[in-house]
Amino acid sequence: MTQTTELPGAGTGEVLSFDLTSRPWIQVLRSDGSQDELSLDQVFAQAGELRRVLGDLATQEFALVRLLLAVAHDALDGPGDIEEWAELWEDPDCFASVGAYLEEHRERFDLLHPVTPFLQTPGLRTAKDEVFSLNRIVADVPAGEPFFSARLPDVSRLSFAEAARWVVHVHAYDTSGIKSGMVDDDRVKGGKVYPLGTGWAGGLGGVFVEGDTLRKTLLLNLVAADTEELDFSPDDRPAWRREPCGPGSDGRSATGLRDLYTWQSRRVRLHHNVEGVHGVVLGYGDPLAWRNMHRLEPMTPWRRSPAQEKKLGQSRVYLPLERDPARSAWRGIAALLADRLEETGGTEGPSRLRPRILEWVARLVTEGHLSRRFLVRARVAGVRYGTQQSVVDEVVDDRLVMPVVLLHAQDPTYAQQAISAAEDADRAVRALGDLAADLARATGSEEEGPKSAARAEGFDSLDHPYRDWLSAMAEAVDPFEHRHTWQRQVRQIVGRVGDRLIAAAGDAAWEGRTHIDNKGGTHWLNASLADVWFRGRLAKALGDPGSPGSPGSPGSPGSPGSDEGDATSGGDGPHTPGPAGLPETDDVPTDPEVYV
């Protein structure tokens, strides 16, 4: 039974408890499109009827999904192997045992418990007994510089449900910086603890897999313990099955997924009364080093760090590959698919590792538990911090729907063409940026602004078409021909954007001016010549699909056995044009599946 306590000064004798297993606090989207707020018990009991968890931010949703996964892994004590996972996938009542599990640990899920409050440190205090504003845990109001306008200018009170969500979030994504020191924390110097880094998830390029129901989402991310790419330990358990944390840290390392998904990177204590939560005490908890955690953390891509390898004298050091908020998920698709496509050779290892959660889904396909036509929605969530990681600058929130055939471990052809298609788009947009720069030169104007704006417009115009093309790959019989279709579509779309730029350039651009090129030569540059150069660059970027040496043809960049790296076409100076022009419409496919 959940213990309760009478609040000092409440004056009514009212006893408070907020039991997260039975009280609604997790926001959800139902399959009919309506929104609701459910308890932990209800979320698992109704998972097949829910579309997804909702959060005040995408990062809060990411943190809550990881919490639910920790509950599922621990309640099921598995899955132990892929066959056990397959039985869960086929069982509509696969989470039936979670209710008894939550009942067993009900006391540890009480947000207001006097001895073991949920994910908090009882009695946590500073030497001056300070209680701070809730701005410290609500990520959309960074201290002194509000991020969203919903709670301007201050967060004075939170409901218990809302406070519970932000407690989960602060452990995952709290900012770094100097924090108040807690009594009995041996890291305190002069009343403060100096920066120890963000919450664990704050350093990740967060990725998880979404299904069309929350039940499927949880199962698709419920990695079996016989997965070779991840380490599992019999000692692994979530925070609520450990002793409550004290003010300091014992320096321990994570034991596995359940531990990592509920990692206590902060020490938190909520201050509340009968009306809700009105203050917080927040300090540093258990820091974790991000390097070489790729065998424990499945929800991020990883990159080799030569600098860390040299510094530490180690042959291979991997760090999380964080997301750039300015780049859509499809432009970074290589990070989701990368390591299986590299020729590793010897003991060097790949330069990047795709998220192990996608490696797990690839295994489900390879072993026949998911159809090759299954569509995987990769959900991307994360933050970009500013000012020495002391404030939240931007939140990353994106999805990429991919046919599961892209993840097939023994058949990398589809993945290679998907990555190369994104590179086709990048090369074409570089050509578009060069066109904008040339038009600016033709009028004697500043170049970087128009070039950046043109590139942004180019990527925006290709965003939905690429996503539609990628989804349609599930039905593509020939991935090479499917990519050729994409190249033709890119040439038409980017060509039309170029036409608009030229038309908007004005009379001054058509008249032109003398320009000095990179080699010191002079020539007359106007809109007409800029157009010729643009068509040549676009032809070089995309070629004539199917012709020898064109992108996507055998032996060319993007084909099996090629050494294509990052796209390098484009630049600020004039280029020797390729073909002077390209057909505008005759070779553009009319297949409606391309233009969904």
UniProtKB/TrEMBL annotation:
Residues 234-253, 541-596 are annotated as: Disordered. Residues 234-244 have a biased composition (Basic and acidic residues). CDD domains: Cse1_I-E. Pfam families: CRISPR_Cse1. InterPro entries: CRISPR-assoc_prot_Cse1. It comes from the Bacteria. This is Type I-E CRISPR-associated protein Cse1/CasA. It comes from Streptomyces pilosus.
